[in-house]
Amino acid sequence: MDLPLSLRTAIEDSLSGEKPELLKKLSRQMTERYKNESGQGRVLVSQNLEARVYSAVRMPATYGAVCDALSYVQELIGTDGSNPVRTVFDIGAGSGAATWAAESVFSPQHITCLEREAAMRKVGADLMSEDPELQEKTEWSAFDLEKDALPGKADLVLSSYVLNELVPAARELAVRKFWEAADKLLVIVEPGTKEGFAVVREVRNQLLALGANLVAPCPHTDACRLDKDDWCHFSCRVARSRLHKQLKDADVPYEDEKYAYIAFSREPVARAEARVLRHPVISKGQVELSLCTRNANKTTVIRKRDGVAFKAAKKAKMGDALVLESSDTVD
Ligand SMILES: C[S@@+](CC[C@H](N)C(=O)[O-])C[C@H]1O[C@@H](n2cnc3c(N)ncnc32)[C@H](O)[C@@H]1O
User: Fold this and answer.
1) Is the pLDDT at 297 greater than 70, yes or no?
2) Is the domain of 128 the same as that of 204?
3) Mean pLDDT over all residues of the chain?
């Protein structure tokens, strides 16, 4: 997956002229802060140059993760031909990655970016000047999730990589606010780590108890069947620009972003029959899939003789929804 060209250009322009060594140092410091200080309600990025470095280092990955999650949701929600998402709240918008993703997937009419840090809001709004159409429909507002009420309702409430920054007690209140504001859909994306999934699992329990309709990724609404030490996550491959490679001292031209997500809707939706939980293992004439299904988590082997199902299984990747017609269950 690639960032929209206008966004990539805007990020590169925003850092041209800065000293590469300083940018690399800020990138390293920021990575350390995110690793060690998340989940404590701390401010992790507050200066303008840091926010620009954040946009270069993290936006490709968070944009990719949110695009993936929204596309999986789009597959499942029915439309009557009209755009199901006309308005969006991007909460804890940072430099706007989830907004760019919502624009790519749903092209809504209006987006409100709600963000506490002035530096993030400024950088996010500046980056959008490279895309006048997106800039025109997007409004940036100062907003503290722990203190402020949301400004009404939106078709889609989106929160990407935010809840894991809050202390646990603040999360429950935040999720309640999100759900009250979601006219149609609520989509929450978190890092694809054990800690990120623990947040998603908590959110899942909370929203099911509130009567929300689960859309994705789970095919069922029973308690999650994964062990408490395991975690459900997916992965998306995003292209690395020259700038990104420089800032991360990386050689490979892509990065694999691991993410976890959960989506709920006001109206019930026909959920996936099965969801691919791990990278499929493909060998001669067969594909082994680890699946979460409506009734069980299981490993399934699909063989060449299974015809259409084999073709679908060969194309499937971790995170995809699947319809199974013929299979051998291994366990
Ligand atoms: C890791 S960044 C994610 C930014 C963006 N959503 C993305 O996916 O790239 C987390 C953002 O949440 C914001 N944030 C954290 N706590 C917040 C709060 N209480 N109210 C509003 N924003 C908050 C931070 O300032 C930061 O911009």
Assistant:
1) yes
2) yes
3) 92
The residue among 240, 265, 290 that closes a domain is: 265
Q: For residues 259 and 280, state if they share a domain.
A: no
**What per-residue confidence (pLDDT) applies to 78?**
76
pLDDT of residue 331: 40
Name which residue sits closest to atom 1 of ligand 1, judged by CA: 161
Q: pLDDT at residue 325 above 70?
A: no
Cα distances from 312 to residues 41, 192, 219, 285, 317, in angstroms, run 44, 25, 18, 13, 10
How far, CA to CA in Å, does 70 sit from each of 107, 261, 293? 12, 10, 20
For residue 115, the CA-to-ligand 1 centroid distance in Å is 6
Mutate to test the pocket of ligand 1, among 116, 141, 156, 257 (most ligand atoms within 8 A of CB): 116
Average pLDDT, stretch 234-248?
88
- Token code pair at residue 67: 């695009």
Separation CA 178–CA 154 (nearest Å): 10
Q: Which helix (H) or strand (E) holds 37?
A: helix 20-37
End residue of a domain, out of 228, 245, 265: 265
Q: Return the ligand 1 atom nearest residue 166 CA.
A: 16
- DSSP per position, 38-82: TTTT-----SHHHHHHHHHHHHHHHHHHHHHHHHHHHHHS--SSS
**Mean pLDDT of all residues in 61-84:** 91
With a Cβ cut-off of 6 Å, ligand 1 is lined by 58-59, 62, 92-94, 97-98, 115-117, 120, 143-146, 160-162, 165
DSSP conformation class of 150: P
My answer on whether 116 and 26 are in the same domain is yes
Per-residue pLDDT tens for 173-188?
999 999 999 999 999 9
Q: How far apart are CA 29 and CA 47, in angstroms?
A: 13
Q: Are residues 127 and 186 in the same domain?
A: yes
Contact 131, 160 (CB under 8 A): no
Q: Which domain holds residue 312?
A: 274-329
Task: Look at residues 142, 184, 122, 189 and name the one whose alpha carbon lies nearest to residue 161.
Answer: 189
Same domain, 206 and 226: yes
